[in-house]
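Example S7 (structure tokens).
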């Protein structure tokens, strides 16, 4: 409880009359204040309490009365106690003083010592308050004049006034501000009261208000990632004359958890502004639409916020394919894969994609959530000699994640353990090439074939390989190995069936690389599936002389279109150290017709295919012609002829001595166009044959009309 004022001076009061002064009792606590009365030692002082219960933060005005009854001149000084339930001052002292006079005198009393007009709008002016001037004496009160020192305040009376004993003069005090501001003034009442010849009344009023202005009310964020945030800045300006108090922001339920505004509160002085930041951080991939009410000491304003959550974070797959690559998975066994997968929102589905090595199409199965993660199986039918290729894909409704990240183009692999390779047969006394399309546990050629064919004896079986311009026999190099990609000549005196022991499939998620010697090399596909020669050639630009690979078929050299597993092939390269690349892609057609053209011809290009044969042997694939950009000397498109396997058989070739170290025998010799015609010198080696040999010339492309083919012996 607080009391103002806590002392009162009634001045001179005539005996037989009464006077009253007001005090204000405020409840500054947090519970109801209960007033039960007032006590004093002198009955001349009493209290009039209009309301005995005062709620927190409220007040009541209490009149303190003085009424002398003794017919003597006397000064009264006393203490009046206000009784309440206040914890600290249950009896609050109010000091009172008065003078009683038996001689009739006027006694001026005003109903309010302070007139507070509050804060008003200029358009609401004037605002009026009532004031009573009461004569509590026993003699007439003469008011000579009333002055006010501030022009915005005025009264309803003017000039001298007479107030009879025990009567009052009512008046109206007006507050008429013409511009914003805070105003104070003093009204002085000049009178003939001997105790109070000048009575002052304090006047206060104001017309000051904040005025909130916001430049933008609609905030459209569009799509924002559910793991990220977007921000918009807006400005609140105070166009008023009083401090604008931003007391907080009230958000509707649908955006309460995803919208932030900083700062949360702020006081903005008149004619000042403050920037605020509105943040939008969606928690789910849904649409958001809501309101933000700006709470202030001006009229509240509203912001409208819309946006949608975008799930821009893919699921996280915790799985290392390397853990399964070389675990010894055996052929024809199913493979179980488990991977923990999480997402910032939800995992919609997970699939396991798989195929045999070298295949282009994947099959798939759904992975099921188990206690340890998502689980799926690769069927045993896919776990074969080629190896397994696979990847995992998780989808959350908006984003997908694959493991490995290079999939599906470059998948993860599982190398498959093979107990043995299928047997293959060598016909007696016929040369054939052999390679192994798997990674053998035991690679030494002599050890492997020695177990199958017996001790090395060229009269029983013979193995050799072209190295750096010459054939090298197994007897001269006991370190020959059946590494994938190595090919060897093999001939046996009797029909032989060869079986190779345990091995592991070759990796099929990257090109297999073979380092080449200058000139001829014997190679085989490293994979347990056929590979298109054009894929190998295309993956190895500038590596292969003449863009051709030869295979030994029916005891003659033929261009190869498809490289089969376990077979061997001859290729030539112009420089040592060149790398031949084998893409791990199965040939689309594993058996293909031998092409008439060694490569596709452009519009103005042409060639002639020349074949030589009789009843004993033949040499069918030889070419001369004109190509765009070809040199008359040796270039990369000229095709060397493989080393002869049977010198006593027919051979047709172009031999050019002036090509020096690069010279030799060529089955394809190409030149640039010449207006004078083009000429080739060809050599036909008849070997030991005495029968008639037939030459066949076939035109490929369109030879110019003014060119004629002439063959000179």
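Recovered sequence:
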């Amino acid at each position: 409880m607080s009391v103002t004022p806590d002392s009162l001076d009634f001045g001179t009061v005539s005996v037989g009359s009464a006077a009253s002064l007001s005090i204000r009792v405020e409840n500054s606590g947090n519970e109801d204040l209960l007033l039960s009365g007032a006590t004093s030692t002198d009955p001349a002082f009493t209290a009039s309490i209009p309301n005995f219960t005062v709620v927190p933060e409220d007040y009541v005005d209490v009149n303190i009365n003085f009424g002398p009854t003794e017919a003597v001149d006397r000064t009264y000084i006393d203490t009046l106690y206000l009784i309440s339930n206040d914890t600290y001052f249950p009896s609050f002292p109010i000091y009172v003083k008065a003078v009683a006079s038996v001689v009739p005198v006027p006694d001026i009393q005003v109903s309010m010592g302070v007139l507070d007009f509050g804060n008003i709008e200029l358009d609401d002016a004037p605002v009026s308050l009532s004031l009573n001037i009461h004569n509590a004496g026993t003699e007439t009160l003469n008011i000579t004049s009333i002055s006010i020192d501030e022009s915005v305040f005025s009264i309803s009376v003017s000039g001298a006034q007479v107030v009879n004993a025990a009567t009052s003069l009512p008046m109206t005090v007006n507050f008429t501000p013409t511009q914003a501001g805070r105003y104070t003034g003093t009204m002085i009442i000049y009178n003939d009261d001997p105790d109070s010849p000048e009575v002052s009344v304090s006047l206060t009023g104001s017309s000051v208000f904040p005025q909130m202005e916001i430049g933008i009310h609609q905030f459209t964020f569009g799509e924002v990632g559910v793991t990220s945030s977007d921000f918009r800045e807006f400005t609140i300006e105070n166009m008023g004359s009083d401090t604008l108090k931003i007391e907080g922001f009230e958000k509707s339920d649908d955006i309460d958890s995803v919208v932030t505004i900083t700062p949360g509160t702020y006081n903005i002085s008149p004619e000042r502004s403050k920037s605020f930041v509105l943040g939008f951080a969606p928690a789910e991939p849904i649409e958001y639409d809501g309101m933000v009410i700006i709470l202030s000491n001006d009229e509240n304003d509203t912001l409208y916020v819309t946006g949608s959550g975008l799930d821009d974070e893919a699921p996280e797959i915790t799985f290392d394919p390397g853990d399964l690559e070389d675990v010894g998975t055996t052929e024809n066994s199913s493979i179980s894969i488990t991977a923990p997968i999480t997402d910032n929102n939800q995992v919609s589905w997970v699939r396991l994609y798989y195929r045999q090595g070298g295949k282009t199409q994947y099959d798939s199965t759904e992975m099921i959530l188990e206690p340890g993660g998502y689980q799926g199986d690769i069927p045993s039918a896919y776990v074969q000699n080629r190896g397994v290729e696979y990847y995992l894909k998780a989808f959350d409704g908006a984003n997908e994640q694959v493991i490995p990240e290079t999939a599906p183009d470059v998948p993860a692999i599982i190398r498959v353990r093979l107990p043995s390779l299928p047997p293959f047969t060598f016909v007696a006394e016929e040369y054939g090439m052999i390679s192994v399309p798997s990674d053998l546990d035991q690679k030494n050629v002599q050890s492997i074939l020695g177990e199958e064919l017996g001790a090395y004896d060229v009269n029983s079986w013979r193995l050799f390989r072209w190295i750096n311009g010459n054939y090298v026999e197994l007897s001269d190099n006991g370190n020959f190995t059946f590494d994938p990609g190595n090919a060897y000549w093999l001939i046996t005196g009797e029909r032989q069936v060869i079986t190779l022991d345990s091995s592991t499939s070759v990796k099929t998620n990257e090109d297999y690389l073979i380092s080449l010697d200058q000139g001829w090399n014997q190679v085989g596909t490293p994979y347990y599936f056929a590979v298109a020669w054009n894929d190998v050639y295309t993956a190895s630009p500038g590596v292969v002389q003449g863009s051709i690979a030869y295979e030994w078929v029916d005891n003659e050299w033929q261009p190869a279109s498809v490289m089969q597993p376990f077979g061997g092939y001859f290729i030539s390269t112009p420089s040592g150290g060149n790398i031949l690349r084998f893409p791990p892609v199965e040939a689309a057609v594993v058996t293909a017709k031998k092409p008439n053209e060694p490569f596709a011809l452009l519009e103005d290009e042409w060639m002639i295919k020349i074949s030589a044969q009789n009843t004993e042997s033949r040499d069918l694939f030889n070419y001369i012609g004109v190509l765009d950009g070809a040199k008359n000397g040796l270039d990369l498109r000229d095709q060397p002829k493989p080393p002869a396997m049977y010198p006593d058989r027919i051979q047709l070739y172009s031999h050019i001595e002036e090509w020096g170290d690069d010279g030799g025998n060529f089955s394809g010799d190409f030149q640039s166009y010449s207006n004078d015609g083009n000429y080739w010198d060809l050599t036909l080696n008849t070997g030991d044959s005495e029968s008639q040999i037939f030459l066949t010339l076939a035109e490929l492309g369109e030879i110019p009309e003014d060119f004629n083919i002439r063959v000179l012996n």
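Notes on this example. Helices lie at 322-325, 445-453, 533-539.
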